[in-house]
Structure formats: structure tokens, C-alpha cells
Amino acid sequence: MSVLVVGLSHRTTPVALLERVTVSGDALVKLLHDVQSDENVSEALVVSTCNRVEVYAVVDRFHGGVTAVTNMLAAHSGLPQETLARHLYVHYEDRAVQHLFTVACGLDSMVIGEGQILGQIRTALRLAQEEGTAGTTLNELAQHALRVGKRAHADTGIDRAGASLVGVGLTLAERALGDITGRRALVVGAGSMSSLSAATLSRAGVTDIVIANRTRERAERLAETVGGRAADLADVPAELAEADLVISCVGAGTRTITPETLGDRDRPLFVLDLALPHDVDPGVRDLPGVTLVDLKSMQQDGIGDVSDGGRAEAICEVRRIVTEEVAAYLDAARAALVTPTVVALRSKAAGVVEAEMGRLLSRLPDIDGRMRDEINQTVRRVVDKLLHEPTVRVKRLAASPGGDQYAEALRELFGLDPKTPDAVSSLEVEQ
Length: 431
Description:
Helix content: 40-55%
């Protein structure tokens, strides 16, 4: 079984099309189960954000797995397969591992180095665990990716080199409005992106922050963290009239902000739409004094290049970390493949010892207990010493590319079947 990733992102797909493929809530849960139910797939995990939709699957056949995942994405998005296929990328085995580690470090994000992707991968893993679609392979892979992402942020300047989408958005807001210190900001939504937006606004010196959300209680909790106040979604038109800066992060598929809700204004307004599907009607761009920045315009304008301080050096270091961690993960995965064979060999040897000791004792019924124990320990020590070198060596060799051939040779030479229940008993395996 091997890891396969089929996905599309802001790098390969127009935002309008990516918006149609993005899944959340019940639709995301259904996609998980639909992918795993295919005969070629044993595990599934989906990372779905405003910038990417990626399906990670453990498959027994490459072509069958690609076809299955592509069909599911097409069915869930309502897009023709041929349209979708033009924008998909596919990674398999080693390259799939490298891709996930690269994503976790923020190297594949619209804004290089943003840290929010770690939380999004963690959320994707938690959902797959809760739904029972992530087994041993994807659990271990995703957990390792999270550790790699944390290491990249801890050991390098990637956080400083690449600002978050919100941070870049505020840079653009200052270009449009001037100094935003003391301005009034409206944040629509109270999810993770809204929380990041509110915190970033507060750090930037915005002291008048309003959080509007469908659930009043969540809005109040978020508003309390930044010293702001809460409002209902029904209050958005009134709040817009007083706002200088708006960040919308709902993504519910309805237009929260339209030309009608904005009405006539007598001062500039900057609107940052970070939702997929979009929250803001593109028509607001035509209103006097209104500046709208959304994911599509960020994509078209190469927004990731807004800040470059220390970026090249940090990216180089993170790529080195990814290469190192991919090698470590693959070595460990290859070594783990040989473990059942080693257990089977030691299990078979233990069985031989037991059988031969039984024959010896039947021929020497008068031997005392002390002598019986000494003979038994001596025979076991001899067997352990004979097995020590080949088992340690095969585990070391298994960590190299093609290492599974050594395990296969061991199985052939000793007639082992590591798949039988007896072979994978609780016997200790030499480390």
C-alpha cells in the first residue's frame, strides 16, 4: 500500500474553479467516506482550505487510486472530469510525502511561510480520525508533517519572511487608507481565519474592532479577546456604514457584502475578502472610494511577493529541513516493513527451540530442574546469537531504497509467513 495525493491549489487553478471544488462540513465528511469506500483505497484524508483541496489516500494501485479520487472530486464539485483534470496535480509514494511536508512548512502557500496551514492540516487529521478514514499510515504521515512544520517555523526565519494573508492584506489596506491605527474595523465571521484577522488587526493598532457572526455567542467570545464588541449578521449594513476596514471570512456561499449593503459612502473603505466561496460581491469594486482585495486578485497580482525580507535564505533552509525529514520518514517506513519478517523469524526459532527441548526432555525424563533450565537457557542464547546479526543487518538494509528485497530474501530462505497471527505475536524484536 502506498500514499497518493491528488489535489489542486492556487498555483494550478483559477480561484473561481477552486471555489467550486472547496468542500467543508457535511460535504467534506461525505467526500472522505466516498473516497475510502473505493476498492483501491484503504485510508483517506482531505485538506480543504481557501487555497487548496488535496486528497491524501493509501492505495494499492496507482492508476486505480488516481481514477477513484479524480472521479470523487468531479462528482462533489459538479465539474466535468476533463475540466478538473487539467488543473490537478498527482504525487505518489516518496513525492507524496515530500509534498505534504512542503505544504506543512508553508512553502506551497500563497504567502510563503504562513503558519495557518499547520492548524488546517491538524484539523484535517482530526476529522479523518473521528470519521475512521485515517489509519496507521496517514496518521503517522500527518503527525510527522506537523512536526516538520513546527520545526521549520522554530528553526528558521520563515515566519518573518512570509506574512500571513491577513498581514499582507493589512499592508494593502495601509496603501489604500494610510495609517490604520485607530481606524474602525469590521470582521465578518468568527472562525479560525476571523480569529487570526482580529488578532492581526489588534497587533496593528486597530482599537475599534467589531465581530459580526451568525452565532452571537461566538462573536462575543472573539470580540472579548481583542477588546472589541459583537454584532449580528443582520447588523452588517449598519456596521459597514461606520467601518474603514472590513475583513470577511464566512465562506457560506452567500454574498454577505453587496453594493446594496454598502450604500452611499462619504469616505474610503477597504474590503478584504478571504472566504471561499467569496463573501463579497465583486460589484463593490465599482463603488466610489471602495477598494476590494480577494483571493483572486491576490493570485493575479502575485501577492506573495509583497514582502521579501530574508525570504530566500529562509526558504533554502526550510527546503533542506524538508529533504532531511523526508529521508528520515522514508527510512523509518522502510525499516518498519521488515519488522513482521523479523518477528516471524524469531517466532519460528522460538518454536524450534520449544520442539527440540521437548524431544530432549522426553528422552531424559530424570534430568533435574536446575539442569533442565540451564540447558534451555543455553540453547536459547545460541539461537539468539545466531539470529542477532541477520536481524539487525536486515533492519538496517531495509532502510535503504529497495530494502524490501532483503526482507523478501529472508522470508524465502527461512520459509516465513509474516502475515500469520502466530508470526506477529508479542515476541520482543531486537532493536
